[in-house]
Amino acid sequence: LELGHGGRFCLELWRFYESWDYLPEDDGEGAGHVRNEIVDHQDRAMQPREVEEVRVTLTGHCAVRQVSSIQLSGLRRPELNRDFAEDGSRMVNGVPSWWSDDGRAFLYYEDQRNRWQINTVRLAGGDGFREIRPGGRRAGCGHAYSVSVEGRPAQDGWFEMTNEQWLPVSVGISKGEATVVDFTAAKIVVEECHRRGAEGQAEQLVAGPVSFHGWTHSGRAGELRVVLPRIPDRHSPESMET
Q1: What is the pLDDT of residues 160-175, one digit of tens each?
Q2: 3-state DSSP call for residue 3?
Q3: Distance between CA atoms of 193 and 86, rounded to whole angstroms?
Q4: Beta partners for 138?
Q5: Distance between CA atoms of 43 and 64, rounded to whole angstroms?
Q6: Is the pTM of this model over 0.85?
Q7: 3-state secondary structure of 93
């Protein structure tokens, strides 16, 4: 990610895959038998090489703003004791959710019980953001919760799921600020290349505009967590989310 003068930015994403086909000679033990052998550098150069490469370049402008954040401490699960920043782009029950500085845990308002709950993304062992929204299969679940006071999690009245039981826990909350970077990419260029041996093909797709966001939290200087937009598919450019 490069940030330039006047709020300009350029974000480059790259995926590279390489493989080699090793074709051992028949050693007389029958067709299809593969020997355990070491292929040296000279043999490698003689075999077909397959390469798949995808480059995505997003260019445009960005703007910086400040949002509220809260630091949680005292929860039994250490991965929940994080700094959470308000994210107005991901709403639950008409209220912004709050996301941890590592992007794995989130706070959201559960209106039927008038409380704030903590959950995590599925990669972190949680229910995932999609499942907890109204109508989702896990809409009433979470790892911990607190009653809501003036639209924010209360300092007192916290419970955490421990050994399949909701047990009271003393949680500390400190208020702060986080920096949000709003990106607007006027153009997205997707370049795909597939080569096998001497043969290959390359394709390019240009799409846009699209908006996405990034966050940097106090105490994590030099780190920017970015929620990437959906990358357009060359077969269906209109599937792009804007």
Answers
A1: 999 989 999 999 999 9
A2: strand
A3: 39
A4: none
A5: 54
A6: no
A7: coil
